[in-house]
Specification:
The protein contains three helices and no strands. The chain has 90 residues and is mostly helical. Helix 1 packs antiparallel against helix 3. The protein has one domain.
C-alpha cells in the first residue's frame, strides 16, 4: 500500500477533529465568561470591584479567577494544535 496516501488521510481527519475541538472549545468560553462574572460579583461573589475593603488573599483569588478565561483559550489552542502535530509526527 501507499504509505504516503495513508499518512495524508490521517492528517486530513486530524485537521477536522482539531477544528471541531477548536469550535467547541471557543463556544464554551461564553458559558465560562458568565460564571467568571458571577464569581467576581459583589452579591454572592468575591466583590472584586471594591479593592479597598477586601483582603490580600481575596485580591489574589480575584486575579486567579480573572486568568481562567485566557488559560482556557490557550488550552483550546494547545489541544487543537497538539492533535494536528501528533498526526504529523506519526
Amino acid at each position: 500500500m501507499n504509505k504516503i496516501g495513508q499518512a495524508q488521510g490521517g492528517v486530513g481527519i486530524a485537521i477536522i477533529v482539531a477544528l471541531m475541538l477548536f469550535i467547541i472549545g471557543l463556544t464554551s468560553v461564553n458559558f465560562l465568561t458568565t460564571e467568571v462574572t458571577n464569581a467576581r460579583a459583589a452579591v454572592g461573589g468575591l466583590d472584586c470591584a471594591d479593592s479597598t475593603s477586601i483582603s490580600d488573599g481575596t485580591k489574589l483569588t480575584c486575579l486567579a479567577v480573572d486568568l481562567v478565561v485566557p488559560y482556557f483559550i490557550i488550552l483550546v489552542f494547545a489541544a487543537a494544535g497538539g492533535y494536528i502535530t501528533s498526526r504529523f509526527l506519526i
